[in-house]
Amino acid sequence: MNQQSTNAIRPLPDDLAERIDLAAQVFADNGLDATRIEHLAKATGIPRATLYYYFPGKEHILAHLLSRTLRQMTVKLSAAGAEPGTGRERLARLVREHLVFIGGHGPTYRLLFAELGRAASLVDIAAGVDLAIMSPIREALRDGQRDGSLHVDDIGAATSIVYGAVLITGMQHLLIGSDRQLEDRATALLGVILSGIGTTPKPRRGRS
Amino acid sequence: MNQQSTNAIRPLPDDLAERIDLAAQVFADNGLDATRIEHLAKATGIPRATLYYYFPGKEHILAHLLSRTLRQMTVKLSAAGAEPGTGRERLARLVREHLVFIGGHGPTYRLLFAELGRAASLVDIAAGVDLAIMSPIREALRDGQRDGSLHVDDIGAATSIVYGAVLITGMQHLLIGSDRQLEDRATALLGVILSGIGTTPKPRRGRS
DNA sequence: GCCCAGGTTGGACGACACGTCTAAGCTAGT
DNA sequence: ACTAGCTTAGACGTGTCGTCCAACCTGGGC
């Protein structure tokens, strides 16, 4: 299925498909409202008339970038979730690959984040996020429960926790930066998610 | 400190301050770009010229709404976190009050979410979120570690996990809806966060 | 080499929206 | 009665989006 057809009027030539990616930084820096078509033309090297030859308008260019980002995440995280291993190992891989994706796709990821909060979006971000991000997590949790590597009473809550933790950590990384490597953060996050932060009425608690 | 002065040109009369809140739904439904001043005038009952008498422009009206929402959250969550109790009890209260806030402030909460992803915002949302949301969580975790009601090795990671879980759960509630009460979701979330989802090499794991 | 269809593009243009400004009427205090 | 500030409609200038036209380029077919 050629999903880009909903945002582009016609298939994009290869070099134009490459260059349009440069629009992501402009949108991320300015937001849809303050981004001018002239800005996009300058940043991408694609003349205005050519942009309108391929896209119905500014918002469709943004939608194209978001759809493409969701597809990339779907491919990446499905692959990470599908590699052999216990549910726990797959979950660890998902958390790490997701944070690495965020680290490597800062502008487009912030666009996705902003768009999730916007009702009038041309892209069904919520559906895309469910497919690309939450389904692999859910699968790993379910399989982990089955293979004994995880203990999950409430898969829905656990899915929200894992995704939420990655999202906030990723956004902090993008907005604030950090000396900690994303891989280290992934390990720390997963450690706390697995161990929990509760205490049980036991004389001594062993570290796992 | 009158924080609204950075977004309003002059203090707002009481009835105007009330009516401007109605703009939140318009912004949430349409986004900044597609929201027209005329839309805002219609929804709030405040004429265009009056809006410009009090605000420098459309974006400042949005900024006003966001700042006010952050202040409300700061008040609400600081209070929830400051009530007497163990760290664990305060954390439970914070999670519940936060979700309840989301339930009662859908439009403005989605605006905050969208704005966090937008670089060109007039409001330092990241700073506002840290003050309003993450600080109370951090405090509760720290105190829980001290009073023995919680066991937290990595407070930064745990803070991201708690806030992220609430955020995703709240957004799901807003976007998808649910039959589950927010209070129930809060309880479920906290349960999983406290227990963790890992397994430890023990013959039997007690439920807490 | 010629022809043709489609791609590429600059720039003119109409429509729309933001924000500014003016002026008129209202309100409350003196 | 006067005055200052509030409230507001509507005219206006400017900027931007998106449409359209026309000219040039490119590649394939004959």
Describe the structure.
- The structure is a homodimer of 208-residue chains.
- Chain A has 208 residues and is mostly helical.
- Helix content of chain A is 70%, strand content 0%.
- Chain A has a single domain (8-194), classed as Tetracycline Repressor, domain 2 (Orthogonal Bundle), CATH 1.10.357.10.
- The first copy, chain A, has ten helices and no strands.
- In chain A, α5 packs antiparallel against α6.
- Chain A is elongated.
- Chain A starts with 13 loop residues before the first helix and ends in a 13-residue tail after the last helix.
- At the A-B interface, α2, α7, α8, α9 and α10 of A face α2, α7, α8, α9 and α10 of B.
- Chain A binds a DNA duplex (30 and 30 nucleotides) through residues 13, 36-38, 47-50, 52-53, 56-58.
